[in-house]
């Protein structure tokens, strides 16, 4: 039984290593993915507009920015492996806030 248990542990360890290595192959976000994320940020911003009104809050730029993480699930997704660039975070936030203030999703142009 000891040999069987040892083989099982080796197989489990090998499987864990494969999962670990494959999860490290995160790549940069493509332009198409960025456009989709900006579209999604605009949609979430427009939804936030309605929620804030239902909470008796005016969707001002400050109020929308204060609720950015709440409605986007923590902010902008990573556009590079393991991080989000300052420019990307700013652009993503602009799409959300603009849409939140107006109540209409800001649509990215290519």
From TrEMBL:
Domain of life: Bacteria
Name of the protein this chain belongs to: Lipoprotein
Organism: Amycolatopsis coloradensis
């Amino acid at each position: 039984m000891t040999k069987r248990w040892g083989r099982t542990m080796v197989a489990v360890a090998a499987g864990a290593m494969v999962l670990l290595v494959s999860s490290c192959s995160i790549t940069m976000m493509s332009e198409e993915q960025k456009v989709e994320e900006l579209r999604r940020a605009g949609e979430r911003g427009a939804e936030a507009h309605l929620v804030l009104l239902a909470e008796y809050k005016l969707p001002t730029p400050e109020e929308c920015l204060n609720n950015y993480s709440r409605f986007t699930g923590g902010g902008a997704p990573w556009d590079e492996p393991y991080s989000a660039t300052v420019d990307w975070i700013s652009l993503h936030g602009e799409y959300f806030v603009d849409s939140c203030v107006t109540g209409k999703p800001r649509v990215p142009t290519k």
